[in-house]
Structure formats: structure tokens, C-alpha cells
Amino acid sequence: MKLEHAELYLVRLPLKFRFETSFGTQTERTLLLLILSGEGLEGYSEGVMEVLPAYREETLAGALHLLETALLPAVLGKDWENPDQLVQALAPFRGNRMAKAVVEMAFWDLWAKSLGFPLYQLLGGVRREVPVGVSLGIQPSLEATLDLVERHLAEGYQRIKLKIKPGWDVQVVAAVRERFPTARLTVDANSAYTLADLPVFRELDRYALDYIEQPLAYDDLVDHAKLQQALTTPLCLDESITSATEARKALELGAGRVINLKVGRVGGHLEARKVHDVAAAWSAPVWCGGMLEAGVGRAHNIHLATLANFTHPGDTSSASRYWAEDIVEEALEAREGWMPVPEGPGIGVTLRRDWIRKRALEVRRVRS
Ligand SMILES: CC(=O)N[C@@H](Cc1ccc2ccccc2c1)C(=O)O
Ligand SMILES: [Mg+2]
């Protein structure tokens, strides 16, 4: 696959609702879109980094700079037989896994299109639709939370994830569990607590949650292992798992028993498959996390979530939940808690190119 040139777009999309987590409130997303061109074909990917380093440490500005000055020049103008070769060319650059994922994921889409296969078949997918749940931001009141949970359960979502933060945790979980005694519930703290909050987690341990997601620091494993020993409820790691090696260390330490796997966080599909396989070797389920992606990132996530060990419902809910207008033509809609994988070569979605060009905050062209 000869890579010839690339276009980076910054696109701002207003969210249909305010999305509050322990690290702040979002009402829009500014996303980085890559179009990687070669042999008359185009591969697409979206970055999961944000303007500010609130989730992990990468930022849009940093990624844009690194992609334009180093990562794309390292791969353009060359012929790559497969993603593994391309990933090795990016290895000399330390960290920056979200930025590297942008290149690697667009290459997988382009490579799959050149071979005429849907991406999920090249990844080793075993299903044509994936189980989906929904991640609900922190709401203004208990009543509002209960109404929102009710609505999404009625839509068939298989799991409800509640964002929590200090001062908004036990009471909201108790109220939801009391109203919905059999619903599959999880909480996501996005690293807002410390081991000193053990009493809060002992309380949460009583509500039959599927798991408690990333309670402690975004780059920690040791304290999570201590917390897991004190609880019955499994811990699920998200921010802490940046690679297959981190996943192996986490599972070896007992820092968690479930992994929220995000292809954009770990550096792309090759690394995501390694995390998936390491977790399977430790009998730890994975599920497909979300980063409020638009249609390109969402499609990549759905293809990855077709792998066998993705057994818990993911956060790849319908795009129409988030966006009045998406960057792709296709409507990625869940039906009764299941999201069908887009058919067609590669990730199987069509860019709304004119609409993107009109709305783009910035376009950078990179040639070999
Ligand atoms: C759907 C979900 O809960 N996602 C992340 C948190 C998150 C929340 C808000 C975000 C806003 C902009 C970019 C990334 C974001 C990630 C998580 O699983 O922890
Ligand atoms: Mg999370």
C-alpha cells in the first residue's frame, strides 16, 4: 500500500446534550479527522484527544503538531505491506499513542479497502452486531437521572453507565438501583477518587454493579490493586490501560478484572487486539469504550468490538444520541441494544466531504 498524501481536518460538532463527568462538562467536541490517500483510495480515522488534557495527557494541538511534522512524514511516500510494518516505523516516537492511533487506524481502513474486505474480517471479528450500553453524564438531579435511565432502558440499551464524582455517587447509585433492581449498572469515576475514599467504595460495593470504572488516578495500577482487594465488585480500568504491557501488569497485579478497551487510546487496532488477547488470557472481559466519537471513530470502534472477548456491552451507542449532524452519510443506529457493524470495504462509512470542508476550523495537507 503506497501512501501518497494526507489531510488533517479540525471539525467542531455541537453535542445534543451537555455531558458532565468528574473532569468537567462538554457541550461540543472538536475532533481531528485524518484522510490518508494512496493508490486512488482513502482511509479515515478520528483522534480521541481533546483540546485540554482532562482525560489523559495528550491534546489536539500536540497531536496536530506531531502528526504534521513527524508521524505522517515518517509514513508518506513509502510502500507498506501491512499495519505491523507501519507501526514499527512509528515506534521511535515515545508515547503519544492517541496521535499514533490516528495514523494506524486510517491505514487499516485504507489497507482493508485495497484488499476489498470489511475491517472486522481483517481484525478477526466473530459477530456482525455488537452489544451496546449507554454512558450517562452527571445530571442536575436524582429525578432527572431516574428519567434518563428509564428512557434508555426502554430503548433497549443493555447496560447503564453512570458518571460519578465525590459528592455524587452513593445516593445516585442507591436511587437508580432501588428503582431498577435488575438493570445492568456500572459507574465511571474518571479518576476522581483516592484510596482515602475507601468507605465510599465499600458503600457502592452493595449495589451489584457490573464493575466500578477507573476510580483512582489515570496512570495508576498499584492503588487500584489495593482497592480491588477490599471490594467484591470488579474494577474496570480505562485511562490506566495504554498498551498490552500495561494490561498484563494490571491483570498480574490484580488492579482490575475488566478492561474498557479504546482503540484510540492504545495506539490503534494492532495494539487493541493485543490488549484484547492479553485480557482473554487472564479471563478478563473487555468492552468497547467511547470517547464521544463521530461516525468515523464510531465505525472503527464497532468493527473492533466484533472480536470474541468483547463480551460486556460497550459505549458505542447511536450516533444520533450525540450529533444532530454527523461527518458520515450512514446513520450508525443501535436497535434494541445491538449495533450492527457497517458493511462494505474498510470501516464501511462515507465521508460528508463538502459538509466537512465547509465546517472545518482548519485543514492541513501533508505530502510525502
Ligand atoms: C462515553 C464516556 O464515558 N467516555 C469516557 C469519558 C469521556 C467523557 C467525556 C469526553 C469528552 C470529550 C472527549 C472524551 C471524553 C471522554 C470514559 O469512558 O471514561
Ligand atoms: Mg471511562
From TrEMBL:
InterPro entries: Enolase-like_C_sf (IPR036849), Enolase-like_N (IPR029017), Enolase_C-like (IPR029065), Mandelate_racemase_C (IPR013342), Mandelate_racemase_N_dom (IPR013341), OSBS/NAAAR (IPR010197). Its cofactor is a divalent metal cation. The keyword Magnesium applies. It is an enzyme of class 4 (lyase). Gene3D superfamilies: Enolase-like C-terminal domain, Enolase-like, N-terminal domain. Residues 142-234 form the Mandelate racemase/muconate lactonizing enzyme C-terminal domain. This is o-succinylbenzoate synthase. Keywords: Lyase, Magnesium, Metal-binding. It comes from the Bacteria. Its EC number is 4.2.1.113. The keyword Magnesium applies. GO terms for biological process: menaquinone biosynthetic process. GO terms for molecular function: metal ion binding; O-succinylbenzoate synthase activity; racemase and epimerase activity.
